[in-house]
Specification:
about 325 residues, single chain, two-stranded antiparallel ribbon, alpha/beta, TIM Barrel
Length: about 325
């Protein structure tokens, strides 16, 4: 029996989260079979078994099924887990970031998750203008929900440095979920200022949708959202993966190295890889029990600076 996953503070919110959480986008999809549902339940239980307490979901994941499944498993353990959900993209496939849509979205999430509060609520990759608290009224509404006890913290799910800087500078947000991985390090310079402001940082897509785990090659045919990667993009990814692999210490799986690289960054509270099986989830969580040497972290940062920063890899 392994020791529980290490915990980290989530900014100055008072929450403590497992260093590796569970990204729950893959837990549910339209038309899923009984076997897929059973595997999804097994993934959540595997997370709990190793001490994961951070679960990231959204209304739009599987048309609300991700939240429903989490509610089924986590409701008896509610005070022992941290649940992050979002608004902006509904379970019905609609997009609405309007102020009046926030409360109904939160209330629907509460029903699906079988809880009376959400630990964290994020604007789900909103337009840039909605990150400016000087003009966006969404944050006033989120403050009301926080004062009522329906949520404990709020913020946004983001992709770029300028977005995080704007959120930090103009709102009282205490949470941000950032796209960050070996191939996408552009937001990193904003992490320290966010940490110093008391924000908890969640790293999303830490495995570059599985590529950094070494699962795919340039000739792999994707049928999901990754089919947008052209042959040239896949070929470049393969070259960069080989360069990343050359920096990873012998005996360290690529998956664990990629997750440990994200965990080594200042201010990161948790990383949220997804998983398609319980075994894959357990492999991901194992990364929290090791760390990369500082010189390896620097070498991976240099790989991005010299090979990618000037010509970003499309995601």
């Amino acid at each position: 029996m392994h020791d529980p996953l290490p915990r980290r503070p989530f900014g100055d919110t008072g929450l403590e989260v497992s260093a590796i959480g569970l990204g729950c986008w893959q837990l549910a999809r339209a038309g899923w079979s009984t076997a897929e549902r059973d595997e999804a339940l097994a993934i959540v239980h595997a997370a709990l078994d190793v001490g994961c307490n951070f679960f990231d979901t959204a209304p739009g994941y599987g048309g609300g099924h991700s939240e429903e499944l989490l509610g089924e498993v986590l409701s008896p353990l509610r005070r022992d887990v941290v649940i992050c959900s979002k608004f902006g993209h509904s379970a019905r496939g609609e997009t609405d970031f309007g102020v009046t849509a926030i409360r109904p979205s939160v209330e629907e999430s509460l029903r699906r998750l079988r809880t009376d509060y959400l630990d964290i609520v994020l604007l789900h990759n909103p337009p840039l203008g909605l990150l400016d608290g000087r003009t966006a009224l969404q944050y006033d509404e989120l403050e009301k929900l926080r004062d009522e006890g329906l949520i404990r913290a709020y913020g946004a799910s983001l992709d770029w440095r300028n977005e995080l800087d704007l959120l930090r500078e103009t709102t009282a947000s205490r949470a941000a979920e950032m796209l960050f991985n070996v191939f996408h390090q552009e937001p990193l310079p904003a992490f320290v200022a966010a940490r110093d402001r008391g924000m908890g940082l969640v790293v999303k897509v830490p495995l570059d949708s599985g590529w950094l785990a070494g699962r795919y090659g340039p000739d792999h045919g994707f049928t999901d959202m990754r089919r947008r990667w052209t042959p040239a993009v896949r070929a470049r990814r393969a070259v960069l993966l080989a360069k990343f692999a050359a920096l990873v210490p012998d005996g360290t799986p690529l998956t664990q190295a990629a997750l440990q690289f994200a965990l080594a960054q200042p201010g990161v509270s948790t990383v949220i890889p997804g998983a398609r099986s319980a075994a894959q989830a357990r492999d991901n969580f194992a990364a929290a029990r090791g760390r990369l040497a500082p010189e390896v972290v620097r070498a991976i940062a240099d790989l991005w600076a010299t090979e990618i920063a000037g010509d970003p890899v499309p995601w």
